[in-house]
Design a protein that fits this description.
Length: about 230
């Protein structure tokens, strides 16, 4: 199971500190999902070796509109293993689920964003993972927490009904925000998920990383085009 984290300078904890805490909590890896204008500097292999957890380079695109987002996708897709789009408006949510080069639509219900059956179908068709971001349930209280629970319950119903792929995250910006799989399973039950579904959403980060690393490897001439037995290097 993996967790997606915001490290320095996007968050308050270093990649190494996140990796150490994630290892203590029983995670197999972390995805460093900093926003594009606050990318973390780290040696993934060195940190991984030091703490025995997989460290995946990710990036969360933040854009004002779909046109700007499209430019960022073209720029960052070849450079990062897991690519997310920072959702939260109806236009950006729709752009994300219709863009198969995006791996994850992040927190679609935040801000003015909403999600409906059309977007759920598009996410399923294009293989875009919808994020169940548990941060507001974990770290808010009162009205905002109640609203977050209602939003995620609605999102869960749509994702399950249309069999759209999804990931789960507590979205920590500090190692102190990191919660283990057991706690995330308990929070997921409040939203309506079974423990197995929450675990599957945590594992999906790792499956995404493995798939994209394979696509970017020398076994593929281009994304989605695998080298055949008669292909030769120039």
């Amino acid at each position: 199971m993996y967790e997606g984290v915001h490290a320095v300078p996007d968050g308050e904890g270093t990649v190494a500190r996140f990796a150490a805490t994630a290892a203590d909590y029983g995670f197999d890896g972390i995805v460093v999902r900093n926003h594009g204008d606050s990318r973390a500097e780290f040696d993934a292999e060195r940190v991984s070796d030091a703490y025995d957890v997989d460290v995946v380079d990710g990036l969360e695109i933040r854009a004002d509109n779909p046109s700007q987002a499209s430019g960022h996708v073209g720029n960052f897709r070849p450079k990062t293993t897991v690519l997310l789009l920072h959702g939260g408006t109806n236009k950006l949510n729709r752009f994300a689920v219709e863009e198969e080069r995006i791996d994850v639509l992040a927190h679609p219900m935040r801000g003015r964003g909403d999600f409906n059956h059309v977007l759920a179908k598009a996410a399923a068709e294009n293989g875009v993972r919808v994020e169940f971001n548990l941060s507001r349930i974990l770290r808010a209280d009162g009205g905002p927490r109640v609203q977050a629970i209602q939003d995620l319950r609605k999102l869960r119903e749509l994702v399950v009904k249309y069999d759209a792929p999804f990931v789960v995250s507590g979205d920590p910006t500090s190692h102190l925000h990191l919660r283990g799989p057991r706690e995330l399973r308990a929070v997921g039950e409040v939203v309506g998920f079974s423990p197995d579904q929450i675990e599957d959403g945590l594992r999906e980060w790792g499956r995404l990383a493995e798939r994209n690393r394979t696509i970017r490897s020398d076994d593929f001439i281009a994304p989605g085009v695998k080298r055949g037995r008669y292909e030769e290097d120039d």
